[in-house]
Structure formats: C-alpha cells, structure tokens
C-alpha cells in the first residue's frame, strides 16, 4: 500500500497525516503520540475511528500539527484519520459518518467588533 495523506481542520488547528501499513505507531510532530497528547480524553477521541473499524495495529501514522489549542488539534487529527481510512476503504464511510467523524466542525470564535469590548458585549450604558 502506498502512503495515504489526508487533511483535517478544526478552529485554527490543521492536521496533515501520512498513513501507511505498519504496526500502529503514531508520531505527532516527530514526538510519540502519548507524549504529545497527555489528556486521556483526547487520546480516546483520536483513536475512536481506528477502534470502530478495528484497525488499531494496522497502520503507522505520521502527523504534522499546527495552530490552535490542544483540543482543536485533537479534533482535527480525528477528522484527518477518518478521511484517510475512507480513502483506503470507501465502504467504511457510512460507519464513520454515522458516528459524526466525517463532518468538519466549522465553528470558530466570533471576531471582536470596533467600539465594543468583545464580540457581543457592549460597554455599560450611562444616562448621565
């Protein structure tokens, strides 16, 4: 099997992954997966597409992550892994789509408007 690449985005985070046959090694920005993501919930969320398709030990994944925070990066990586698995086997798309892993979460922080302290908040009104 050739190397398959996929892209995942969430908020300001971008995950570029390269997936190939292997023993299940995952490297994130040239570090071990367990060292980069220390929160167990994020590790679980990232591995969900692989566990659903029972492909945990089948592929080596190399990841380039940039931008955003740790949660955004984890969700971007989950989307990228799902997209790569669908490139390998298109029949898996229905299972991953039903779990909500094939949809990009496009919600981002609303911009601050001029003349206001935040996006929606207004300065306190003074009658006198």
Name its key features:
elongated; Ribosomal Protein S5, domain 2; 23% strand; alpha+beta; 128 residues; five-stranded mixed β-sheet; 34% helix
Summarize the structure.
By secondary structure, the protein is α+β, with helices and mostly antiparallel strands. Helices cover 34% and strands 23% of the residues.
How many structural units, i.e. domains?
1
Radius of gyration, CA atoms, in whole angstroms? 18 Å
Outline: elongated
Along the chain, the helix and strand elements come as EEEEHHEHH
Would you give an account of this structure?
This protein is an alpha+beta fold and 128 residues long. The protein has one domain: Ribosomal Protein S5, domain 2 (2-Layer Sandwich). It has helices at 33-36, 40-52, 70-88, 93-99, and strands at 4-10, 13-21, 26-28, 31-32, 59-66. The protein has a 5-stranded mixed sheet with strand order 1-2-5-3-4. A hairpin with a 2-residue loop joins β3 and β4 (31-32). The radius of gyration is 18 Å and the shape is elongated.
């Amino acid at each position: 099997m050739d190397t398959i690449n996929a892209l995942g985005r969430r908020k300001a985070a971008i995950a570029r992954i390269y997936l190939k046959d292997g023993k299940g090694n995952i490297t994130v920005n040239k570090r071990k997966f367990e060292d980069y993501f220390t929160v167990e919930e994020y590790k679980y969320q990232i591995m969900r597409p692989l566990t659903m398709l029972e492909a945990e030990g089948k592929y080596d994944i190399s990841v380039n992550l940039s931008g955003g925070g740790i949660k955004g990066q984890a969700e971007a990586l989950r989307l990228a892994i799902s997209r790569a698995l669908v490139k390998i086997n298109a029949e898996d798309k229905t299972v991953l789509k039903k779990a909500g892993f094939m949809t990009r979460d496009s919600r981002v922080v609303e911009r601050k408007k001029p003349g206001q302290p935040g996006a929606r908040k207004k300065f306190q009104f003074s009658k006198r």
